[in-house]
Design brief:
heterodimer; A: alpha+beta; 7-stranded mixed sheet; 8 strands; globular; B: alpha+beta; 7-stranded antiparallel sheet
Chain lengths: 158, 429
């Protein structure tokens, strides 16, 4: 397999891992998909289209991301639910000497303890990745949510 | 005119058994008929509803579509610079006229039959008004002047635009009272810059949210981020102040947060055995918790809840205005407009955007409110004539509170609610 094909496979694999770790409530392991120097942001399409800088969630370093998860575990109270991410086909751009970029649409369903499911969010991932030794890490993940009117509340990451 | 009970659907009659509104009947949170009456008597009654900020419509022709209760409303700026508000519903067949959420236009044109309205809401264009070759069209006596968009009276205070449907509404500054006039002037003392919007849809009754805004007591018990990471505590300095009628409420706190380097404070015994109040946990990056003093006073938290459905928010350096848009008895939307100041430097702007993590639907301090409202809404369905208990901070007259362990402002809201809805609390008991 060529280097490019190998990297392409790894990018796809990362998207699968990303969604699965969130769905399995392995949030701490999900954080480790990110590089130390990273940005994770959830922004509404409404704000992005108007070039307004406000996010719904903004972690501009990995410690903030760790704090977010820590707070969810220790402090926050939110609707008890399970997540199901359905991530669409990934388009990855691999060019020499440029960051790897990848984008995919997602649907996120939430289910209650009683097994009632609802569509919680749809939107698109805009990801930048960096190869660090043997690992591929997320340096930037912008989640643009079409579902900008957040149903109930937004606790667990998208 | 006032009654002993509030009439609901299917002959239901809701009783406020205590004259001080220390008991709220569950039914008023779930009843569709009560909801319909609220639209008339509250949102279209003698109140000033917050509509939008002038900074959102700086130029002639700029508009935004907002809502008063569940009524869609256009707010725009006319050619002469004046601000207008009108119901976004065509005078012809009742269609939504302005379909875009925001933009700039010369006239608002209804797509259905192309009736167009100028920026003050006057009907200016009706295609084929006189028909074709003497056939069809509107009757000759049809008077365009009688078919404009329904206008609201507007008033603006430091760029914060309010609207009212009622001719009887007192002047805006009288409605707000001195304290809340000052709170508006405090947040809008200099030109602002819009940072963006957040929307949250909550599947519960809108009054459970206005209750929540007037219940400082829950802040240090439900929102554990503040306690866990030592930002604010119930036994810290804070309180609640109201206007003369008790309908608006300022929940305030003046407390420094704990920095990551400070020694761990001792366990707070007032939290008892709830497991809360340990304060042992630290954030790895507490920088967003910092407060850069930017007001002449020492308030670090100031939430002004304006009757019926708006709030001004200062959480540290995170500033926003919230508008409650009702959808039904069982659903509402909170639309928050975040802003900074035009003279913010880049570091301050970045700080505001990072600190916005604390507020809104994903807010580290505020996300619980969505859950709390829905928990109540779900649980009260079967027992319309049972009651919420509102006694923290004491009963009787509505008075300002110099502590946070109080829900007296909730009673203030309900006393005014009863006044406008035409029911006398305690009368039927």
């Amino acid at each position: 397999m060529s280097v490019a094909a190998d990297l392409w496979m790894r990018v796809h694999d990362l998207f699968e891992t990303y969604g699965r770790l969130l769905d399995e409530d392995q949030l701490e392991a999900w954080v480790e998909l990110f590089a130390e120097d990273c940005r994770y942001e959830i922004v509404s399409r409404e704000n992005r289209d108007q070039q307004l800088p406000l996010s719904l969630m903004l972690c501009d370093n990995k410690d903030m991301l760790r704090d977010r998860i820590y707070s969810l575990r220790e402090a926050n109270i939110f609707n008890i639910h399970s997540d199901c991410h359905v991530i669409g086909l990934v388009r990855a751009t691999l060019a020499p000497h440029a960051p790897i970029t990848a984008t995919a649409a997602y649907s996120l369903f939430q289910s209650t303890q009683e097994g009632v499911s609802r569509l919680f969010s749809v939107g698109r991932y805009f990801m930048e990745l960096a190869v660090e030794g043997a690992d591929l890490h997320i340096t930037r993940q912008i989640v643009v949510v079409d579902t900008g009117a957040i149903p109930t509340l937004l606790a667990t990451p998208i | 005119m006032t009654a002993a009970v509030l009439a609901g659907q299917g002959g239901a009659a809701y009783v406020f058994p205590e004259a001080d509104c220390s008991r709220i009947p569950y039914g008023v949170y779930r009843d569709a008929e009560v909801y319909a009456l609220e639209q008339q008597r509250l949102f279209r009654g003698p109140v000033w509803n917050y509509l939008a900020l002038e900074a959102e419509i700086p130029n002639p022709g700029d508009f935004r579509v907002v809502a008063v209760g569940d009524t869609p409303v256009i707010v725009d700026r006319a050619k002469d610079g004046s601000v207008h508000a009108m119901v976004n519903r065509c005078a012809h067949r009742g269609s939504i006229v302005q379909r875009a959420l925001h933009g700039n236009c010369k006239v608002h044109t209804c797509c259905y039959h192309q009736w167009s309205f100028d920026l003050t809401g006057r009907l200016v264009g009706v295609p084929f008004q006189k028909g074709l070759n003497g056939a069809g069209g509107l009757p000759p006596e049809f008077d365009k002047a009688c078919h404009g968009l329904e206008a609201l009276r507007v008033a603006s205070l430091n760029g914060m635009i309010f609207g009212t449907f009622s001719d009887e509404t007192e002047p805006l500054e009288d409605f707000l009272g001195p304290l809340f006039t000052q709170q508006v002037e405090r947040l809008f003392a200099k030109p602002i810059r819009i940072l963006g919007y957040q929307r949250q849809r909550i599947f519960g009754n809108w009054k459970l949210y206005t209750d929540n805004l007037r219940d400082p007591n829950h802040g240090g018990l439900l929102h554990m981020f503040q306690i866990t990471f030592g930002i604010a505590r119930l036994n810290g300095k804070g309180g609640a102040r109201m206007d003369a009628q008790g309908k608006h409420n300022l929940s305030w706190a003046a407390q420094g947060g704990r920095t990551a380097d400070e020694a761990e404070p001792p366990k707070d015994a007032s939290y008892g055995d709830t497991g809360r109040g340990d304060m042992k946990i630290k954030l790895r990056d507490p920088s967003m918790l910092r407060y850069f003093k930017e007001f002449p006073d020492d308030l670090t938290l100031a939430i002004s809840s304006l009757f019926p459905g708006a709030a001004l928010q200062q959480i540290g350096n995170t500033l926003a205005v919230r508008q409650i848009r009702t959808c039904s008895a069982d659903e509402f939307e909170i639309v928050s407009t975040y802003f900074g100041y035009q003279d913010d430097d880049e570091a301050m702007m970045r700080h505001r955007l990072r600190k916005a993590n604390l507020a809104g639907p994903a807010g580290l301090v505020s996300m619980e409110d969505g859950e709390a409202v829905e928990l109540v809404h779900r649980a009260i369905i079967g027992d319309a004539d049972r009651h919420s208990v509102v006694e923290f901070g004491g009963r009787g007259p509505i008075k300002d509170q110099e502590n946070l362990i109080s829900d007296v402002p909730m009673r203030g809201f309900w006393m005014h609610y009863c006044r406008l809805m035409g029911v006398t609390p305690g009368m039927a008991a």
